[in-house]
Structures
1.
Amino acid sequence: MKNYAIGLYEKAIPKNMDWEGKLNCAKECGYDFLEISIDETEEKLSRLDWTKGQRMDMLQLMKKTDLPIRSMCLSGHRKYPFGSSDSLIRKRSLEIMEKAIEFADDLGIRIIQLAGYDVYYEEGTAESERFFRENLAKASDMAATKGILLGFETMETEFMNTTRKAMHYVNFIDSPYLGVYPDSGNLTNAAHSYGSSVLEDMETGRGHLIAVHLKETVPGKFREIPFMTGHVDFEAVIGKAWELGVRRYVTEMWDVGKDTWKEDILFANKSMSRILEQQN
């Protein structure tokens, strides 16, 4: 058995490709699993309402292609955050969380990556932070019931752009089902802004990092930067993550309409796998 697993973020593949095509693409490009996106669009959120038949069809596709979906990027909370001042939005945030956990349980997904926002489209306050903590506790209890791991993504905003900030909430909730699923690019941009160390920040999550997003960035830009063209030190990040016990990684990238999209996916896998294979 290989001593690490590398997954592909769904949005790296053209949106109009069907599920069998997406799974085959990830397989052909050398990945071990696919990370499904449940973002804030109604199209993606509606996946959480798939029927039992649709879920069974997906399980059959995973078996047919020999490529599983094993993690979920749940960014839908950006629109429906735990900390919203609107009680109806907070209620919706917990409904999404419950559905996501049930969806993960049905499909064999092990990890749900949570967006590290108390709120996004409104101003954060002491009250939004309190609501966030209260609803995070409820989400962690839901996850514990199904044995699903929740991991905070370190984001591009001040609220939770470092491992240290994410650990504040991990320690507060104190659940074995809540950890940190950091983003290498966002950590690097935060360290650049603060004049701090990415590796020292990762160390603050010792014992609580459950996976790592491998993503390229440049100062001030957080998306759609081709691998190995930015300022993320992937060798250092992977080396530190490995030391901290992380064995699951996902290359996060986006299809931006280039003809070379598949070559870009292959390059991401090859360049990151080369570093992973050097770890002991």
Note: The longest strand covers residues 33-38.
2.
Amino acid sequence: MPLALLALAIGAFGIGTTEFVIMGLLPEVAGDYGVSIPTAGFLVTGYALGVMFGAPLMTVLGTKVPRKRMLMLLMGLFIVGNLLSALAPAFSVMLIGRVVASLAHGAFFGIGSVVAADLVAPHKKAGAIATMFTGLTVANVVGVPLGTLVGQSVGWRVTFAAVAALGVVGLAGVAKLVPDMPRAEGVRLRHELAAFKNVQVLLAMAMTVLGFGGVFAAITYIAPMMTHVTGFAEGSVTWLLVLFGLGMVGGNLVGGRFADRALMPMLYVSLGALAVVLALFTLTAHNKIASAVTIVLIGALGFATVPPLQKRVLDHAHGAPTLASAVNIGAFNLGNALSAWLGGVVIAAGFGYTAPNWVGAVLAATALVLAFLSAALERRDGAPGAVAAGSVPAEEQAVAVHH
């Protein structure tokens, strides 16, 4: 594997860390700025909305710029956003920093996937893409818990400054190790937009919003829930996030393995089980061992939906999947934003820190209903809707490997 993949993996590690680390630091940030926990939750919502709008926007802009240069520009945005967050004198400025950093998220993974695939021989493309996304996976097992620990020990500003430094390393790596690549030719926006006329594409994206939103409803407020309800010490949030990260890794692997074999049954099982586990979290949150097990299951079941949902979007937008794949990255983050906001609403309404779990359960259950509806429409139309994997250009498949 070429060293250029290491540079992409470092960038992915930094992006994954900055996306998720804020959840473990909400109490500290809220305390420093003198705002409530639900208000601090807008830092999650703002980032998610930035990814939602930034993913398609930056992907479209990226078609006019050589890929290496676009990756460097995206890492530059990421660095500026995290530095702004680290130095922000007011909550509003930090929110702006979060949004700036988020603009790099979706396009970096989309364009980076294509670059990774182009760096190796055809029979190694999947391995190259997986190597890049190892950075995102490791971020949730190592970067996020470590960033939480640092933030709680020496200050959350240090965490964001360290993430910005990671961005500098990633930028230098891209500049030094990634070869120059020509910009994509023959890209027509109207062909890409046509994919959104397909009701199955829209249903898959709705499932993405609601299903993954169920995960974030609970996990956004994991720090106050575990400390105020379960009785964990503040420092315990670090290893609880490690458990969540390990669940993510396992769920992602299982979801990827079965997405090709039985896509819809995989969605039925994962979404249905996720809804049940989230509902039960309102009870298990009162017990330390039960809550720890539940956090692992939420990570596993939530991320088990990612590969089948990404593949379903790709299957039904097979004529022009690049923009649809980027928008689906945004759809995951729309779910994050929606659920973080709804979770804050029920907490602010006085229902307690476990109330977001019910929000998540309802969202996941709604996604399950849409999955059954999608399958019923597919049976009615008498066509599977999916094309053979080989009929999709490898570069376009690469874009949709991960959210």
Note: Residues 192 and 320 are 5 Å apart (CA to CA).
3.
Amino acid sequence: MAETSATTGTGEPASRPRKSSWKYIGPGIVVAATGVGAGDLVATLIAGSKFGYTLMWAAVIGCVVKISLAEATGRWHLATGRTLFDGWRSLGPWTTVYFAIYVVIWGFIYGATAMSSSALPIVALFPDGPGLKFWAIVTGLIGLAFVWFNRYAVFEKVMTVLIGIMFVVVVYVAARVVPDVGASFAGLLPVLPDGSLLYTLGLIGGVGGTITMAAYGYWVNAKGWSNSSWMKVMRLDNRVAYITTGVFVVAMLIVGAELLHASQVALTSGDRGLVDLGAVLEDRFGAGTAKLFLVGFFATSFSSLIGVWHGVSLMFADFVERFRAPAAPADSADPAVSEEQAGPAVTERQQRSLPFRAYLLWLTFPPMTLLWLDEPFGLVIAYGVLGAFFMPFLALTLIWLLNSSRTPREWRNGFVSNGMLALAGLLFVVLCVQQVRELPW
């Protein structure tokens, strides 16, 4: 990759490889906070309640798979100076058609889901106050105002605080239930109990595996990392993100195994399962622990809300910008575009752009209608199908992009990267088929 004489805000030459350092950590924390939602934690709890520690190994493999996927996304942005949607567009118009339909339908239904999820713990904390719809609308409006008026630096700090709350609460609850250390280590041996296949696939592919993984490269650019000199920093940042996610998964498996498995307590599926868990914690440890858990539940849900409001709006703004511009040559890997098409200056402009703010409004106001209505049958089907296809789409297009001349030779996939992305692609295809089969046709 060609060198550049540009300098960063710290005065360091942009071409000099940075040493990986904890002081740079940021975008990975944002991904971890956004990607782990309340529904993910409930799915993990249910797996622990059904199979104890037996599927601990699946959580570890899932962590490694996510590290590989997010690393590939960040590597594309830094090695080429082109955004992920720019890369997708070079693969043909079918990617534009898919993403356009996906981002509109997904945003409409996800907006209602995120607002409801953020409202649930507030209603549980203040049962005599306003109802779920009121708090759902309030959290949506707060998320809208926060992302509308703040830039990435403030956004990252708030996300760091929220993930700190999540981390402390989840680990605290796991410690309170007193994990069986021997059984935990035994769970690292790959075993598939009867009836556990779908739970295993879900643990590997589900937690933290959403469109926010694709948004990682945009947050990397927003942080000011815009060329390959930041590659080591990005890789450390990414590992921290998914190791943190792995800790969440392991902690919730422990809670499911110790608190629910032995007593055969059943949770409601979906976000409401965490309200059920709050009641179980109150019976076992008292009101203080239950309220603390509900605060962590809120931090989990609200961090996902504002993370999507920011990250997917950035992706949509880039989508509109690339759609209007002429397509770059398919084999283009010219690093000179880095300073023009990526980095904090462009991210700042995109955050003030009409498409960014239009998508913010789309995530906030139209979904409020779903708070009063049952989700329309057709929308549920479309949302399920498009959502199920996204992760296979991401994994397989990254393999395509990072093995082609679109990527500078030194940053193309090696044997390990190709193996992990192929494993991820196969896993997500299986999950996709299963999710589509389970839809209420």
Note: Residues 1-14, 333-342 have pLDDT under 50 and may be disordered.
